[in-house]
Request: fold
Amino acid sequence: MLPTFTGFSHGVNQSSERKKASLLPALFPLVLLNFEAQAKCNHDERERNTMSNSASDDNNRPTLASVEAQPNTDTAIAAFVSELQQGWDQRDASISNRRFAADVAWGSPYGATVNGYNQLHAIHTRLKQQGTGGAASRYEIKRAFAVSDDVIIAHVARYALDLEGHPIEPSSNTSGAFSEMALYVLVRRDGTWWLAAGQNTPIRPGGAV
Reply:
């Protein structure tokens, strides 16, 4: 009858398990380092993908301004701003609002919105009679460009002036004379340029900061 080695095998197994257990503390730092290295590799890959996507977005970002339409743009916005200036100087809203479309969309410096010419014209008439914004102002085109043959985007500043004709320093107080920056959208319809939308924002100390 052949002998059995159950006891010996059990002892060998126990010894092997003890050796494995004794190796665990030494192996743990290696496993941790490998995990950290893999995590860093994954993070770097995500960063590269993000940068690649960002660069791709920048490469695909369109330039909307139409160079060919710029001469007509300059002429149209100059004529529009000339009427704004004339209307301010004469305190006459019918001149300032001459090229406002019937369904013009307007945003006031105080966050209110006005829809339609009739309502907006009544407000402007009252404000001009009250001398809101200051006694004298100068309009200045900051930027104007066409996004198509029939659509113009423009930033136009209105600078409140002192008695000597110099721009008044920006102030957070809009109860007296104050300056504004307006964003205008003009649309050409049947050969005439009309104001489709406007948004006024007070020019405060520090600009947009």
